[in-house]
Amino acid sequence: MSLSRIYITGLGSVSAIGFSVQEHLDALIAGRHGITRLEYLDSRFKDELPFGEVKRSDEEFYHLLGIRDGQTTNRTSLLGMTASREALDMAGGDIHAFRTALVSSTTVGGMTQTEKFFYQFDTHPETRKWIDKLDCGDSTRDIANFLGHRGYLTTLSTACSSAANAVIFGANLIKAGIVDRAICGGADALSKFTINGFHSLMLLEKEPCHPFDNDRQGLNLGEGAGYIVLESERIADPSRRPLLAELVGYANTNDAFHQTAASPDGSGAFSAMHKTLEMAGIEPARVSYINCHGTGTPNNDESESKGMERLFGNNVPPYSSTKAFTGHTLAAAGGIEAVFSVLSLQQGIIWPNLNLRNPIPDFSFRPETRLRRNEDIRYVLSNSFGFGGNNSSLLFAKVES
Amino acid sequence: MIRPVYINGYACLSPQETFETEDFLSVLHKNPGSLLTAIEPDYRNFVNPVAIRRMSRIVKMGSAVAKSALKQAGIEKPDAIIMGTGLGCMEDTEKFLKILIDDNEQTSAPTPFISSTHNSVAAQIALQLKCLGYNFTFVHKGFSLHSALLDTQIQIAMGEARNVLTGGIDEYTENKHRHYGLAGWWKKDLDSTDRIFSTKGPGTVAGEGAATFVMGAEPAPHCHIELSGTHSFFRPEDHERVGREMKQFLADHGLSLQDVDVCISGLSGDERDDHYYEYVHQLLPADTNICTFKHLSGTWYTCDAFALWMACKMADTGNIPPLALYRKGRGSRPRNILIYNHNQQVSHVLHLVKWF
Questions:
Q1: Which regions of chain A carry the CATH code 3.40.47.10?
Q2: How far is A134 from chain B, CA to nearest CA, in Å?
Q3: pLDDT per residue over B310-353, tens digit each?
Q4: Residue B51 confidence (pLDDT) above 90
Q5: Residue A264's pLDDT is what?
Q6: Average pLDDT estimate for B250-263
Q7: Which end is more exposed in chain A, N or C (fewer Cβ atoms within 10 Å of the end residue's Cβ)?
Q8: Residue B347, CA atoms < 13 Å, CB-side half-sphere
Q9: CATH of segment(s) B5-216
Q10: Does the interface predicted TM-score (ipTM) exceed 0.85?
Q11: Cα of A371 to nearest chain B Cα, Å
């Protein structure tokens, strides 16, 4: 195994607050969230609950991406294509120039169509072209075909930590010498399936979510996609494309506590962050900012705060959750937030935690609620935690020019 | 090149008698139609009876093979759990989907939603074993098992784990089977599932199962099998590309086509897919044994896990079961066993197992 350093050379994102990285940056700086009523997905909850919906129809995506009518491309794929294309373009277009992997992730894949046609497959032959479009790998195949990718590809599905795990696997493929470049991230479309699922678990907030607030009731579901391009130190060349950041640490651990709840003592969050810093050889005190998982559910925010308290003691660095901007985009969250973390390093900005009214009194620290500019940001930690006790952290570092 | 890993334990639950038995495919299980369902054990022997009641079928299957393989390897708790599944937890996904559609989003059903999550099997195994380490689930059609095996090799090579529980698992529901039938995946009016090769035309038969492998950085005292490597390629432009990939993969492990004692081929009886396998069969020397498995396992996205289990069993026993033998070759004890499989011509995988 080589110990190649891993550089980030491309970013791509689409969510309720934008269709490009630039639009996300503008929205984050302006404090403009994307939590609204549903306009595109026809769910019974559309006038009842707020969501982070991407305000573009499938037809508009088809048109903009140059996909022919009648092709079977589900919304998860459309979101993934949009963000991965942007990331690849930023890194320098030609996908065949290097040995490249596409490591994508999703939790629901083509569910948006399957839930529409499930009973019609038997009776309406014209719907059958969607039968083979549900599984997670199918959306990655769509994205690969769209990008013209013929190299290594695979898909992770580990609930809400999926995209962070795609980044971890991509980095390991580079370190193992299998590829020199990896396009990593995740995509998830809103579906009735996930809306009703999280509603069944009583995890959906009736108003715009307020992560790390003492009165938080739950999360807002969102949709989107986020991808980053990783390059080995062998091919990363600042004279070709700027090195946006370095991925210096990562870890995945398991709570082994409960299928859907995080350990209340924060041990899972702690171990993922701790192992990540250990890999990077970085003291906790050197972390400049934490982009938290911070979903707004009572359980997550408590557990994540305890994990931070245990790791950082009385010196918890500035932290925030950006989920009040985008909603919780499930598999995509780790990808979109990896983009936000790299932007934070590049811009020297700490993103605000919106909607905070009463900080949790049990903790001596509180999230950053204002946009803080001109910060000397060296290391950004990004957390993603999922069902099945699945905890992942990524540590991004500023590249000194 | 990533260093090989040692297969210290393995277990398989499938439509044949493969689980917790010394027997090696001496009895053929077959039925009319195009679906082979897994033969399930009494799960109380493998899983805490209180926990069983809350577990979905696929989680029970995964837990049982995990327990069995770990026991064989003499490992209580692996450092990492890495699973591959093509469809994830189909039964609960459909259960929740039906409630959602039938009741027009009026009914709350948290249990099937929780259980529908694709990483449920790996997570539930971790929960039972209190395994706090790395826990990954790959869900990518015919690449799912390959990715899990490659990740296992990487985790061990990086020193992140010394023992990894890995494997492939998929289940079929009546609905899913019928839907894929509508999409043209299965042979129609088949009088017996083992007749896929003699019934010309498109389609094959479906199957389901779970196979797990305990891979170690070092061989256990009883272990004589290594996974030398695994390789995948996507959308080959022609048959020759398959040949080139195969030769290169073998060369990477110091072997040539002549060194392959047994090739386990994914031949499925589907004329749209079989030309790749037939090309490989004629590429291999005439004295290479060729085995098939899909008339025994049926096809599922991670059915190459069944083939890998077969390879382990062949390496351990030195026997090639007559039920699996498609073309008889040399009679020497099988040493190098190559698995070649593809999923609908798109996702091609090679796994190499060595007996030492």
A1: 6-232, 248-397
A2: 9
A3: 999 999 999 999 999 999 999 999 999 999 999 999 999 999 99
A4: no
A5: 87
A6: 98
A7: C
A8: 24
A9: 3.40.47.10
A10: yes
A11: 35
- Average pLDDT in the B39-49 region? 95
Q: A299 and chain B: CB distance < 8 Å anywhere? A: no
Among A277, A341, A337, A340, smallest CA distance to A312 is for A277
Tokens of B276: 């790749």
Measure the CA–CA gap between A196 and A387, rounded to whole angstroms.
16
3 state SS for chain B: CCCCEEEEEEEEECCCCCCCCCCCCCCCCCCCCCECCCCCCCHHHCCCHHHHCCCCHHHHHHHHHHHHHHHHHCCCCCCEEEEECCCCCHHHHHHHHHHHHHCCCCCCCHHHHHHHCCCHHHHHHHHHHCCCCCEEEECCHHHHHHHHHHHHHHHHHCCCCCEEEEEEEECCCHHHHHHHHHCCCECCCCCCHHHCCCCCCCCECECCEEEEEEEECCCCCCCCEEEEEEEEEECCCCHHHHHHHHHHHHHHCCCCHHHCCEEEECCCCCHHHHHHHHHHHHHCCCCCEEEECHHHHCECCCCHHHHHHHHHHHHHHCCCCCCCEEECCCCCCCCEEEEEEEECCCEEEEEEEEEC
Give which of B7, B183, B138 is closest to A105, Cα–Cα.
Answer: B138
The CA distance from B119 to the nearest CA of chain A, in Å, is 5
The residue behind tokens 């309406």 is A124
Identify all chain A residues contacting B137, using CB atoms and an 8 Å cutoff.
156-158
Mean pLDDT by 10 residues, chain A (401 residues): 89 98 98 98 96 97 91 96 98 92 97 95 96 96 97 97 98 97 98 98 97 98 98 95 97 90 91 98 98 97 97 97 98 98 98 98 97 97 96 96 70
User: Residue A1's pLDDT is what?
Assistant: 66
Decide if A72 touches B, using CB distance below 8 A: no
Tell me where in chain B the CATH 3.40.47.10 domain(s) lie: 5-216, 225-355
Q: Which residue's entry shows tokens 């009842």?
A: A48
CATH class name, domain B225-355: alpha beta
A20 in B contact zone (CB under 8 Å): no
Q: Selecting from 3.40.630.40, 3.40.47.10, 1.10.260.40, 3.40.50.300, what CATH number does the domain A248-397 have?
A: 3.40.47.10
Which residue type occupies A241? R
Q: B255 falls in which pLDDT band (50, 70, 90)?
A: very high
Name the CATH superfamily housing domain A6-232.
Thiolase/Chalcone synthase (3.40.47.10)
- Tell me whether residue A364 is exposed, middle or buried, using C-beta atoms within 10 angstroms of its C-beta: 0 to 12, 13 to 18, 19 or more: exposed
Is A342 at the interface with chain B, CB within 8 A?
no
Backbone torsions φ then ψ of B282, nearest 5 degrees? -80, -20
Q: Please check whether residue A172 touches B, CB under 8 A.
A: yes
pLDDT reported for residue A340: 98
Of A45, A157, A201, the CB nearest to B119: A157
Q: Kindly state the percentage of chain B with pLDDT values over 90.
A: 97
Which residues of chain B lie closer than 8 angstroms to A46, CB-CB? none
Q: Given this model, what pLDDT does residue A2 score?
A: 67
Reported pTM: 0.98
Q: Which helix (H) or strand (E) holds A153?
A: strand A152-156
